[in-house]
Amino acid sequence: MSKDQRLSDLPLAGITVLDATSNIAGPFGGAILGDLGATVIKIETPAADAARTMSPVEGDRSAYFHIVNRNKSAVTLDLKSEAGRLVLDNLLDSADVLLTNFLPEKLAQYHLTPDELMAKRPGLIIGNLSSYGSEGPSRHFPGYDATVQARTGIMQVTGERSGEPVRTGISVLDIGGGTWLALGILAALIKREKTGTGSVIETSLYETGVSWVSYHLSAFQVTNAPSIRSGSGHPAFAPYGLFKTSDGEIMIGVGNNVIFARLCAVISREDLIINEKFKENVDRVKNNTQLEAEIERILVGKSSKHWVELLAASGVPADHLALPEDLLSDPQAAALDILVDYPDPTSKVKKIPGLPFRIDGKRPGIRNPAPHKDQV
Fold it and tell me: By three-state DSSP, how is residue 154 classified?
């Protein structure tokens, strides 16, 4: 936990969450609630959460499991058995929130449909995160982050223009879906405070994917032109992408004419500003290949460090191309305290990203590491 921060200071202190989700998306939603102070009890089947064995592993926990199940305790329940359902029923009596990611038939099998649960507990908040949502022709489809990336078009717009579609390098739908789940639960808690009644919060990987491609949907309706892959660039802006320097690559983003003029001044190519091919953003997008070549011809003459410092000082968004693990030694990450202590002396994991916001200057920390497998 952050220095001088107490559990009672966190906004969800006193809230109890039963997290019956598995894999990545649902558990990440539960982890957010746990970071915010809720008491989160992870409900696992005897077979255990598959996320425990996602490579690389460390005993009965994986790298993924550490991230999405911090600030939780765990209990093993066989929900197919009467005894297991009885234990869950008793836990529900003192719970504020139940999170699930079961398909509709599983909810019915376990007697966990919203109608059944809220008939007995009208103040209960139920959050269900599925692959494709609870309605429609695909509602029974199983799905993982990558398969839904394919369905929603994310893969088609990811990768080099001349290359094949690829999944994003991070599980954007899992992490995004878990975030939407937590956001919905927070909204339902506010509603319950006002009305005394619970809510059913539903989200899915599919809905998250549809939300993430919103620009592409809007652009298609404006132009009737199919979406394309832009590599490190962007179909809406130019110049925008990776550029070679003498010792590596840097990312530059130019979103308007003012920033473009600043870039041209830094590289001593003010002639580009008045060139009819590059005067407006739409012109630059149309002639982007030629423009990038003109810019890179200058950038390759000096180092990445030289250009990033000069461009940033001139008000041009630019930065080094780095690896995720470079964040462990990034002074900006240290200054923001975004990598918080992971309180488990038995694990090789010592730092993980905390929530990407602070409350009254303090970032919620990790009180407890992800739980080992409950053997009860």
Answer: coil
The residues, ordered by sequence, that sit 6+ positions from 279 with a Cβ below 8 Å of its Cβ are 257, 273
Q: Smallest Cα–Cα separation from 282: which of 236, 314, 246?
A: 236
* Rounded distance between C-alpha atoms, residue 1 and residue 70, angstroms: 12
> Is the Cβ–Cβ distance between 72 and 31 less than 8 Å?
yes
pLDDT digits 0-9 by tens, 144-178: 999 999 999 999 999 999 999 999 999 999 999 99
- Residues 6 or more apart whose CB falls under 8 angstroms from that of 22 comprise 44, 49, 50, 51, 101
> Which residues lie closer than 8 Å to 177 by C-beta, 6 or more apart?
25, 26, 28, 29, 129, 203, 204, 205, 207, 208
Q: Which residues are CB-neighbours of 210 under 8 A, at least 6 positions away?
A: 152, 217
List b or e across 30-40, with b for residues whose CB sees 16 or more CB atoms inside 10 angstroms.
bbbbbbbbbbb
Kindly list the distances between the CA atom of residue 116 and the CA atoms of 20, 83, 191, 265, 283, in Å, as whole numbers in the listed order: 17, 18, 21, 66, 59
DSSP bridge pairs for 341: 351
Q: What's the pTM value of the predicted model, to 2 decimals?
A: 0.94
Q: Which amino acid is at 161?
A: R
Q: How far is CA 338 from each of CA 132, 146, 349, rounded to the nearest angstrom?
A: 32, 27, 15
Rounded to the nearest 10 degrees, the angle between the axes of helix 145-152 and helix 205-212 is 50
Question: Could you report the per-residue pLDDT of 251-280, keeping only the tens digit for each?
Answer: 999 999 999 999 999 999 999 999 999 999
Q: In one letter, which amino acid is 229?
A: R
Q: For the chain, how long is the longest CA-to-CA vector?
A: 77
Coil vs helix vs strand at 21: coil
Amino acid sitting at position 177 = G
Q: Tokens 């959460």, residue?
A: 49
Contact criterion met (CB below 8 Å) for 307 and 318 = yes
CA distance 77 to 42: 10
DSSP code of 372? P
Burial environment of residue 226 by CB neighbours within 10 A (0 to 12, 13 to 18, 19 or more): exposed
Indicate if the alpha-carbon torsion angle 135, 139, 144, 148 is positive or negative. Answer: negative
CA angle 110, 116, 119 (to 5 degrees): 155
CA dist 188 and 249 (Å) reads: 45
What does the block give as tokens for 120? Answer: 């007995």
